[in-house]
What we know:
It is a single chain. With 93 residues, the protein is an alpha+beta fold. It has helices at residues 17-33, 47-55, 80-91; strands spanning 37-42, 59-65, 72-79. Strands 1-3-2 form a 3-stranded antiparallel beta sheet. β2 (59-65) and β3 (72-79) form a beta hairpin.
Amino acid sequence: MTEVLFALRWDHWRNGYASEAARALLQVRFDELAPEQVVATVEPSYRASVAVLRRQGFVLEGSFQHTLSDAHAHLYRVTRSLFERACRESEAP
């Protein structure tokens, strides 16, 4: 399993960097390692992070309490086909 965390300084928000990095990471992950799916967790109030996930095709699977920090989080999941569809839709005129 691979875990990736990301954080950007506030003055770099809203430039598309997180979406661009997520797309590149997922492309490499699906192309080179060929997993059936990739999962992500996010604190529900982090709406910008949720938007990044949704732009990559992730769908909400449910919520849970994180065992290490006891924080509430949402679990998102994306398959290769969902990711590829999201890529095509974002490139459409």
